[in-house]
Amino acid sequence: TGSYEHILTSTPKPGVGLITINRPKALNALCSPLFVELNEALSKYDNDKEIGAIIITGSEKAFAAGADIKEMAPLSFAAAYNDNFIAPWSHLANTIRKPVIAAVAGHALGGGCELALMCDILYCTANANFGQPEIKLGTIPGGGGSQRLTRLIGKSKAMELILTGKNFSGKDAGEWGVAAQVVDGGKDEVLEVALKTAETIAGYSRVATVAAKEVVNKSQELSLKEGVDYERRLFHALFGSKDQTIGMTAFAEKKKPEWSNE
Ligand code: CAA
After folding, report:
1. Is 111 a catalytic residue?
2. pLDDT per residue over 139-193, tens digit each?
3. I need a labelling partner for 189 at 20 to 30 A (CA). Which of 77, 107, 158, 232 fits?
4. How many angstroms is it from 115 CA to the middle of ligand 1?
5. Catalytic residue among 66, 106, 111, 170, which?
């Protein structure tokens, strides 16, 4: 367990790093110091050879109720632009190479919704409360919501949500393909599902899981041909890994592979 002010960290299963956003007095609003801690914990797990998958969760009431509105209220354009306000929010998507799973219960609004969308796999409760309510504050999403949500659910639905600030439920998130699975129950139940998946991923070769995440994410950036070419190159490259030999030999010998992570 690390020593942070706004988050808790633990390794509840072998190979699984769990980050719990823990700022209950502000419904886990993502103030700048919280994001610094979140990034530090993410990088620590990403660099830890024992860890194979990372989970981000919140509380029963809130995954995160957005960026911290009280911190943002007095900002000027110059301050936001010159200091590149919320630049640390790009760390998760741009830098973290191991799979990251969001386990969402309660509010996931504004930046909280965006943080969940940045994760590689999203699980939520049926009554989780997602939305991009920035329009009600006289502004727009700033953590990638207009881009990631639109890619996931299409332009018309994303426009409607972002222009009206209307929320959507965990059940909707499942139906629209935003969530990989909608879980009955509350935070404990959704975390249980996330832990199972994380443990499964952490049980595979780290070389393969990191490569798998990399190629799936490329599909969001490249044309189909470029993406398939990219995948093919990395697929070829994995013939240079020890774990490809270990995995395929174990199959032929009807044994359980003992991964080297090399
Ligand atoms: N920032 C700062 N403080 C917040 C917060 C936020 N995003 N969300 C909640 N809080 C605080 C409240 O101010 C309140 O603090 P006090 O007790 O000191 O007054 C405390 O958390 C509890 O909140 P409520 O009393 O409002 O709780 P509720 O259960 O009545 O309502 C809620 C819950 C509907 C989520 C409501 O808190 C709410 O609407 N929050 C704001 C949601 C929002 O607009 N998020 C988007 C932020 S903008 C953004 O994220 C920009 C971006 O894209 C990067």
Report:
1. yes
2. 999 999 999 999 999 999 999 999 999 999 999 999 999 999 999 999 999 999 9
3. 158
4. 15
5. 111
Distances from the Cα of 37 to the Cα of 24, 62, 69, 119, 222, angstroms: 16, 18, 19, 17, 32
Q: Which two tokens stand for residue 18?
A: 């769990």
> What's the distance, Cα to Cα, between the start and end of the chain in Å?
28
Whether residue 1 has pLDDT greater than 60 = no
Question: Which residue owns the Cα nearest ligand 1 atom 20?
Answer: 26
Q: What is the pLDDT of residue 2?
A: 61
- CA of 141, closest atom in ligand 1: 53
> Per the domain annotation, does 258 fall within a domain?
no
71 catalytic per annotation: no
Q: Which residues line ligand 1 (CB under 6 A)?
A: 26-27, 29, 65-70, 86, 107, 109-111, 114, 133-134, 137, 141-143, 145
pTM equals 0.97
Q: Is 187 in the same domain as 212?
A: no
Do 175 and 84 lie in a common domain?
A: yes
CA distance 15 to 170: 28
